[in-house]
Automatic annotation (TrEMBL):
It comes from the Eukaryota. Keywords: Membrane, Transmembrane, Transmembrane helix. The keyword Transmembrane applies. This is Uncharacterized protein. The chain crosses the membrane at residues 21-42.
């Protein structure tokens, strides 16, 4: 088991040089794809737990994740033995179905808003558009209770946030490999840097807990992500030539690199959703203050479509059967 792996520092990969860049961040995770589409990772067996954390995305990061990263799965050691041939059965990272219920309740609400936005786009009658906007406003302003029987997990408290946290055995092995060829002074410097990264991770966890307290929608996404389970191996879908080149040049992704990408993608979709839905709420409120004959629903429709698309992509990273099971439970409530 590799519980505690969430305390690993963030690692980004330069897609041209394949050099790993350490960035202090909370994170854990899963699948990396070569920009050319030659490398993909797919999950096989499960053993690793992840912890939720926040991702702050600038435009360049956003483009990087959407264009260069694709999901498929999980935690590994950086050697050829772990780079298995692709199997026909891909198992996505998963968490208990109960962990998906808060986000599923949110999805049902957003699906309803999206249906109303489709009605907005299908008519040019200003009076009808205004009445539909009132319904949209009701849905967006009165979201369902997302946490019913579920309880948010206790995060790091402020006094404890500065204390260096433990790391998983897998991460410790990775850190030890990274320091193996360093001189004694450099090893000491690397250990101090590692401790600082973990301290910053604790502070990020605390900051995320504060954001969750003020935003149940954000908390519903994180509630599932924090309970994800990941595999301990991956498969390459690259050509034989590309595989040989990567192995020969020691360019297979390291554990930390693989661990970062999946949660980054999930957080990207979460953040896109939260931004779009907040803007949609503001736009609907503004339009309802206008005279009926002056309402313009263009932006409302676009923003709700963006939110719905981001939500759909986020759920697309979850096993379909789990999504169906969670939906059935929520619809019976």
């Amino acid at each position: 088991s590799t519980k505690g792996i969430a305390s690993t520092p963030r690692v980004l990969i330069d897609m041209k040089s394949h050099h790993a860049i350490l960035v202090p961040h909370i994170g854990v995770l899963v699948a990396l794809v070569h920009a050319s589409g030659g490398l993909a990772l797919v999950q096989e067996s499960v053993s690793t737990s992840a912890s939720a954390r926040d991702t702050v995305l600038c435009p360049s990061r956003k483009s990087f994740f959407e264009r260069s990263i694709a999901i498929a799965s999980s935690c590994i050691s950086p050697n050829a033995a772990n780079a298995k041939e692709p199997s026909s059965s891909v198992v996505k990272p998963f968490a208990p179905v109960q962990a998906l219920l808060p986000a599923t309740r949110l999805k049902v609400s957003i699906d309803a808003a999206h249906q109303l936005s489709s009605e907005l786009a299908s008519t040019s009658d200003k009076s009808v558009q205004y009445e539909t906007l009132v319904k949209v406003d009701s849905v967006l302003s009165n979201p369902p209770k997302l946490f019913v029987a579920e309880k948010l997990q206790q995060r790091t408290s402020r006094p404890m946030a500065q204390i260096t946290t433990g790391v998983s055995s897998v991460d410790k092995e990775q850190y030890q490999r990274n320091r193996a060829d360093l001189s004694i002074p450099d090893r000491m410097a690397a250990m101090l840097n590692q401790a600082d990264v973990e301290r910053q991770w604790g502070m990020l966890q605390y900051a995320e807990s504060k954001r969750e307290q003020g935003n149940q929608m954000r908390a519903s996404f994180n509630y599932y992500t924090s309970q994800l389970q990941f595999a301990d191996s991956y498969s390459l879908t690259a050509s034989k030539e590309e595989k040989k080149r990567m192995i020969r040049n020691d360019e297979l992704p390291t554990l930390s690199a693989v661990i970062t990408s999946d949660l980054d993608l999930r957080d990207l979709y979460r953040n896109q959703f939260l931004t779009a839905i907040e803007d949609a709420q503001a736009e609907v409120s503004y339009q309802l203050k206008q005279p009926r004959e002056s309402v313009d629903v263009t932006d409302v429709v676009e923003l709700i479509n963006q939110a719905h698309t981001a939500c759909t992509k986020w759920f697309g990273l979850i096993p379909a059967q789990d999504v169906q099971d969670a939906l059935e439970i929520v619809m019976r409530e």
